[in-house]
Amino acid sequence: PLQQVDPSIEGRSGLSLDHTEWLGDQHIQTDYELLMQDLQRNDPDLAARTRLIDPLIAHYHLRLGDESTALSAFQRIVNDQNGRDTADFLFLPVSDASASDPDRRGTHWSLLLVDRRNREGPAAYHYDSFRGQNNEFAAMLAQRLGTRLEPVRMTQQRNDYDCGVFVVDGTRALVRRLARRDRPAVLHLDNLVADREQLQRRLS
């Protein structure tokens, strides 16, 4: 785990990432932007139904914001430019940063996938690579989004700095499966291999 969530960092191109560096929100958001560009080129239909959500929006607006702020942010996320709710899949990085203590800026990332194909009963899947450390925060976020949490398996990291890599690589693995039109039953990530070197190449 152990990632620094730093909302003050701007400039999201040519990012460096050391061999044991914690991922910040800007690393995740940049990789999400690259993934969405690929998706728009290769599968525009899935791209139109998928939202890769900025970690800062997920944390400050959806999880910690008041009800009005969260609702407004949610509507901006799910609605397209014509005001239609076209979002079937939401990918949300989950941080354990504190709401009340500015010095507790976050030590762990995990991933929440919300499957909204059934608008009446959306399902959420929480992928945590470190013994469920973010389970409480993911449950709060899922409740905010009106979804039920379903159990899912996730590979466990073997160091204390790669949880952010598991989030971006897990997102990419799930998007590939959704592109094959897989159903939720096969959305476990217990065979995921996180590849920091590949992420370093993408970000540079």
Structure description:
- Helix 1 (25-42) runs parallel beside helix 6 (163-179).
- The chain starts with 24 loop residues before the first helix and ends with a helix.
- The chain has one domain: Adenoviral Proteinase, Chain (3-Layer(aba) Sandwich).
- It is globular.
- The protein has a five-stranded mixed sheet, with helices on both faces.
- Helices cover 39% and strands 12% of the residues.
- With 204 residues, the protein is of the alpha/beta class.
- The chain has helices at 25-42, 44-49, 55-63, 67-78, 135-144, 163-179, 196-203, and strands at 50-52, 89-95, 109-115, 123-127, 148-150.
- The longest helix is centred in the N-terminal third of the chain and has 18 residues, at 25-42.
Q: Could you estimate the helical fraction of the residues in percent?
A: 25-40%
Mean pLDDT: 90
Major pleated sheet: 5 strands, mixed
Number of separate helices: 7
Overall SS class: alpha/beta
Major beta sheet, strand line-up: 1-2-3-4-5
